[in-house]
Amino acid sequence: MGKCLIIGCGGVASVAIHKCCQNPDVFEEIMIASRTKSKCDALAEKLGGGKTKIHTAQVDADHVDALVALIQGFQPDVVLNLALPYQDLSIMEACLATKTHYVDTANYEPPETAKFEYRWQWAYQERFRQAGICALLGSGFDPGVTGVFSAYAQKHHFDSIEYIDILDANGGDHGYPFATNFNPEINIREVTAKGSYWENGHWVETEPMEIKREFDFKGIGKRDMYLLHHEELESLAQNIHGVKRIRFFMTFGQSYLTHLKCLENVGMTSITPINYEGKQIIPLQFLKAVLPDPASLGPRTTGKTNIGCIFQGIKDGKPKTYYLYNICDHQACYQEVGSQAISYTTGVPAMIGAMLVMNGTWNKPGVWNVEQFDPDPFMDALGKWGLPWMEDHNPVLVD
Ligand SMILES: NC(=O)c1ccc[n+]([C@@H]2O[C@H](COP(=O)([O-])OP(=O)(O)OC[C@H]3O[C@@H](n4cnc5c(N)ncnc54)[C@H](OP(=O)(O)O)[C@@H]3O)[C@@H](O)[C@H]2O)c1
After folding, report:
1. Is 316 helix (H, G, I), strand (E, B) or coil?
2. Record: fold of 2-137
3. Looking at the chain, which terminus has fewer C-beta neighbours within 10 angstroms, N or C?
């Protein structure tokens, strides 16, 4: 069918690229372009020889001109941005300049402020509409599948949804006292920030990790989970009409929290530059350099993830509850694509989002979040490409 330019070659990109190569009727040609070209070449060598033709390139995605030249040279149908949130706007600018569709998995975050919000990317709505190109935002698992689950629940199971609780559990064990499952810098910025949830039309802010609940996750068991701010809260609050409250909870083990608190207390999670032996360094970036690379966790991680949404609302005049979730096994992911389940649960929906934009199923001019499209084709594709979903019509609720 067409060509996809994938930017970034880290943990998530590696899974998405494996999945593109499993789907050569859609992804006839891909180009993997990232800051470190040797990583792109290594993956191309591993996956080459199949039906999907793979090219590689070096690019610094902070530079619009370099991206424009790359896009003009390769002429992709879509750009799949799997670099870091800092690159979102430069890649969107390059897509506008070349009239190329755009897909990502994480919303823009300015490097100097640990604050992610959709407003920067939503501001591109009119320019993308006028250019006749589509930007699909947040096509990972959370955000991504959680938005598709919400649209699916709204379409098939409720007249109105009043409450959504998004629960993200990682029951995986990698054997390290402390490591993050995806990019450590992005991950630590997210979990050390204040929490918040949406209630009755406004944000309620909490201290980091202030709200804790215990939940019994299928496939994992009982885990402590903590309320975090998360980006899909912002788009779902706008797109799921009439919703009264949306919360996001993520599980953390005691060892992770104790290490994180200690690192925070000594200043290692700070993003304020400091002077070290005559050089400006950012403590969090230095910490990233000494932590295990998330891409290296695959062979040693066992256990499962369970991510999903519990909905409460009204159907045919009666109260109704409904839980949609996916369970993913770290070792099964590793056997299939050489990565752990966190990269897998993000890389699969990234490939599906790019596919649906390329084949026109989810493609309209403008800037959209996943829940603004018909969820059914995405739900069908999830099962087909490795993330089958389960439903529970009588779930235990989170108080
Ligand atoms: N929605 C979800 O469910 C979800 C879940 C997890 C992650 N994510 C998002 O997925 C994205 C990728 O995460 P990851 O864990 O794969 O991160 P990662 O392993 O750190 O990979 C990031 C990749 O981007 C490349 N890169 C960074 N800056 C670049 C630049 N200026 N120009 C070109 N390439 C650049 C890196 O190159 P080097 O190899 O040179 O460092 C690396 O290959 C992040 O935005 C993350 O927030 C989304």
Report:
1. coil
2. Rossmann fold (3.40.50)
3. C
Domain ranges of the chain: 2-137, 145-337+388-392
Q: Distance, CA 61 to ligand 1 centroid (Å)? A: 11
201: CB partners within 8 A, 6+ apart: none
Q: What share of the chain is helix, strand, coil (3-state, %, to 5)?
A: 40, 30, 35
Mutate to test the pocket of ligand 1, among 15, 63, 82, 370 (most ligand atoms within 8 A of CB): 82
Among 3.30.360.10, 2.20.25.100, 3.40.190.10, 2.10.109.10, what is the CATH number of 145-337+388-392? 3.30.360.10
Ligand 1 binding pocket, CB closer than 6 Å: 8-13, 34-36, 39, 59-62, 82-85, 87, 105-106, 140-144, 182-183, 186, 294-295, 346
Mean pLDDT by 10 residues, the chain (399 residues): 96 97 98 98 96 98 98 98 97 98 95 85 98 98 98 98 98 91 84 93 95 97 96 96 96 90 92 94 93 89 97 98 98 96 96 98 98 98 98 97
The domains spanning 2-137 and 145-337+388-392 adopt the same CATH topology: no
Helical (H) or strand (E) element with 391: strand 390-392
Which residue has a Cα nearest atom 5 of ligand 1?
A: 346
CA distance 243 to 253: 31
